[in-house]
Structures are given as C-alpha cells and as structure tokens.
Specification:
There is one protein chain. With 198 residues, this protein is α/β, with parallel strands linked by helices. The protein folds into 2 domains: 3-70, Orthogonal Bundle (434 Repressor (Amino-terminal Domain)), CATH 1.10.260.40; 75-195, Rossmann fold (3-Layer(aba) Sandwich), CATH 3.40.50.2300. 50% of the residues lie in helices and 15% in strands. The chain has helices at residues 3-15, 20-27, 31-39, 46-55, 60-70, 83-96, 108-117, 134-144, 160-164, 178-185; strands at 75-79, 101-105, 120-125, 128-129, 132-133, 149-154, 170-173. The strands form 2 sheets. A 5-stranded parallel beta sheet has the order 2-1-3-6-7, sandwiched between helices. The chain has a two-stranded antiparallel sheet with strand order 4-5. A hairpin with a 2-residue loop joins strand 4 and strand 5. Helix 2 packs across helix 3.
Length: 198
C-alpha cells in the first residue's frame, strides 16, 4: 500500500479545490485511476508523477519523496550466467538500493519461479545466458507481471535494437556501475524509489 503518496496526493488535490474527476480530466486519466492513487492500491509511473507535479503546481521532489516512502522494500533480481559478474553486480545494486531485496540468479528458470512467487519491481538481465536467451526471458517475466521493469546489462552493445523489441525499459553495457544504475532508476517505466536514493 502506497499510503504516504496517497495521503499526499489527496491533500494536494483538496487544497487546490479539485475533485477526483477534475484532476482526472486535467491528467487525461479516468476518475477511477485517481481514486486508486488516493486509496494506495496503485502508484503512478514516472511520467504521471511528472504530470501530477505540473497539474498540482508542486515540486516533483515532493511527490517522488512520498512515493519513495510509500514503497515497500522492492524485489530486485539480476540474472547473469557468470558467477563473478553476478557477485560484483549484486554488490553495486546493494550499494545503490540498500533498502531493496536483491537476489541473483544464474539459471533463468529459477528467476522465472521466483517471479511467479514474488512481485519483482526490477530485473537486471544479461542477454546471453549460456544456451538461453535473455530476450526470451524478458518476455516471460513480463508475461508474469507486465509492471516489472527490465533493464538489460550486456557486454554486446549490438543487441540494443533487439532489446527494444521486448518492452524492456533500459539497456546498459557491462560492467555495472553505481552511476549507471542511478541513471536507469530515473528512467524506469514504473518507479521503485523505495529501493534507495536516486
């Protein structure tokens, strides 16, 4: 439940004398979408938070901070068939997102089973996974939960065009760096600020 964001949004809306319907009209969303934001059952994505800040004439950091406090510890997974790269990269993710639950997988099937049992907010995904394809794994993970953010991490920049065909929201070239992770966090389709500072 995104309670702090919900309360912040409701207070900002009522202070400006707007009904949920009126805010929805200005945001180009249904009243039911605004209601879900205000009851804490849904958190708007980054583009909607940006639009809300303009419509409500409030600094975007106010909304982002509320969203960050509202987010429960997000599940972040990384899939890479190299144990060394996986170990080094997990340390980077833990540095950038200390409040997240971060889990690494070498075998794609294990990542799929984890995603079926847990709501995964972000996947850092290698494209070449031995005999398996990270592109196919991305599609499978998005079938499980379309609101999962997938960011590719690969040693092969030539894959970038293929990567965009899979509905991923980011692409990084190895090695994983704190700066690269922070940059990608700011571009995610579905924000996960609760995992750490941007």
């Amino acid at each position: 439940m995104n309670n702090l964001f919900a309360e912040t949004l409701k207070n900002l809306r009522t202070e400006r004398g707007l009904s949920q319907i009126q805010l929805g009209e200005q945001m180009f969303v249904n009243q039911s979408t605004v209601a879900r934001w205000e009851n804490g059952s849904r958190l708007p994505d980054a583009s909607m938070i940006t639009r809300l800040s303009r419509v409500l004439d409030v600094d975007i950091s106010t909304l982002l901070s509320a969203a960050a406090e509202s987010e429960e510890s997000p599940n972040i997974i990384m899939v890479d068939d190299s144990k060394v790269i996986l170990s080094d990269s997990l340390a980077v993710l833990e540095e950038v997102m200390p409040n997240a639950t971060i889990t690494g997988f070498i075998w794609p099937q294990e990542a799929i089973e984890y995603a079926k049992m847990n709501r995964v907010a972000l996947v850092i995904l290698d494209i070449e996974l031995g005999t398996a394809s990270g592109l196919d794994l991305c599609r499978t993970l998005l079938e499980i939960n379309f609101h999962t953010n997938v960011v590719y991490l690969t040693a092969y920049p030539d894959y970038s065009l293929d990567a965009w065909d899979t509905e991923a929201c980011g692409f990084m070239v190895k090695p994983l760096t704190p700066e690269g992770v922070r940059k990608q966090l700011g571009k995610l389709r579905y924000p996960i600020m609760g995992g750490g500072s941007l």
